[in-house]
Amino acid sequence: MRIDIITCQPGLVDGFLSQSIVKRAIDNKHVEINLHDIKEQGKGKYRQIDDYPFGGGAGMVLMIEPISNIIKILQAERKYDEVIYLTPDGTTLKQGLVNTLSLKQNLILICGHYKGIDERIREKYVTLEISIGDYVLSGGEIAAAVLTDALVRLIPGVLNDETSALTDSFQDNLLAPPVYSRPAEFEGMKVPDVLLSGNEKLINDWRLEKSIERTEKRRPDLLKK
Ligand code: ADE
């Protein structure tokens, strides 16, 4: 998979890419991630990238040309499966969409800032708009990092244990069951006997039961789906 991230704050995303599971995935060539600084396509001596909104109002708008130039350069080099704009008014990100996107080859992520990007970028290039939740961040960078992390961990070989991602919360509309590790007893608190039984069938049944219990209690909306 290749992900091209268009941003006016590459440092924000870079900090994330150089840590975490994503860094290991990049080092092991499971994914290639390129950051494109909008300022490099900025206009004039001062590399202007934003301007006042037509019609007035507070805040600045990221101008059309710098972002359009970057997208044109990228699209001339290869075909992209999706051009994604991270925005609070997009489709709320869920595991199902992450699963679908994790099968794609080439993605462009556009991070907005200030009041957002010129609407014509959305009309001309953007094929998918994603929000990571009903709150407003100062820019799309953290949202792009969230999406990238969720995608990269699904690429085969990225997690040590191939099956690990399949047992995450949300993969089957159920929250994950509780997990325990050593010691088997801590300050009088014991790990459930069944997990020490070695009986795989009993353990799986117990985990499913706890998943359902937890989902009923915390996220009953998931069970209605
Ligand atoms: N940019 C600002 N807020 C955002 C959000 N909630 N999701 C995605 N991108 C954003």
UniProtKB/TrEMBL annotation:
EC number: 2.1.1.228
Ranges of residues in domain tRNA methyltransferase TRMD/TRM10-type: 1-225
Highest taxon, organism lineage: Bacteria
Pfam family, one: tRNA_m1G_MT
Residues involved in S-adenosyl-L-methionine binding: G112, I132, G133, D134, Y135, V136, L137
Compartments it resides in: Cytoplasm
Keyword field: Cytoplasm, Methyltransferase, S-adenosyl-L-methionine, Transferase, tRNA processing
Catalytic reaction list: guanosine(37) in tRNA + S-adenosyl-L-methionine = N(1)-methylguanosine(37) in tRNA + S-adenosyl-L-homocysteine + H(+)
Keyword Cytoplasm: yes
GO BP terms: methylation
Subunit structure as annotated in this protein's UniProt entry: Homodimer.
Family: Belongs to the RNA methyltransferase TrmD family.
Protein name, UniProt field: tRNA (guanine-N(1)-)-methyltransferase
Source organism of the structure: Lacihabitans lacunae
